[in-house]
Amino acid sequence: QVQLVESGGGLVQFGGSLSLSCTLSGSMLRFYHMAWYRQTPADQREFVARITPGGITDYSSAVKGRFTLSRDNSKNTVYLQMNSLKPEDTAVYYCNTWPTPQPSWGQGTQVTVSS
User: Fold this and answer.
1) Which of 8, 20, 86, 97 is most deeply buried (CB count within 10 A of its CB)?
2) Distance CA 45, CA 94 (A)
3) Burial of 46 by CB count in 10 Å (0-12 exposed, 13-18 middle, 19+ buried)?
4) Do the beta carbons of residue 37 and residue 96 sit within 8 Å?
5) Quick check: 97 pLDDT over 90?
6) Contact call for residues 6 and 106 (beta carbons, < 8 A)
């Protein structure tokens, strides 16, 4: 019943920035610990960052210091601000609940970083 919709991806140059959004429907975001993941065709889905209902964040070593996760519970939306982007960040980005993901994932949003 919970649905997740990611948006905000696009094409950006090396060193550039993008801001992703994830909107949850069918429930209230404030109930959930949320996480961002990313995936390329050649790789497993990779953890990127997570945020508790109260706003405490945790980041993977690959993105720590470059990405910032935030949430607006009144809008049922979590954000991922991505700075200093690298070609290695190119992937489809997904959000989901933590620690148990919803069985139905969103469509994801494509991020492509050119060199």
Assistant:
1) 20
2) 9
3) middle
4) yes
5) yes
6) yes
Provide the β-strand partners of residue 108: none
Q: Are strands 91-98 and 33-39 parallel, antiparallel or unpaired?
A: antiparallel
Token code pair at residue 115: 């060199």
What 8-state DSSP symbol labels residue 30? G
- Residue 93 near residue 104 (C-beta atoms within 8 A): no
Q: Which amino acid is at 68?
A: T
* Cα-based angle 36, 12, 3 (whole degrees, multiple of 5): 30
| pLDDT tens-digit series, residues 37-74 | 999 988 899 999 999 999 999 999 999 999 999 999 99
Q: Looking at residue 42, what DSSP letter applies?
A: T
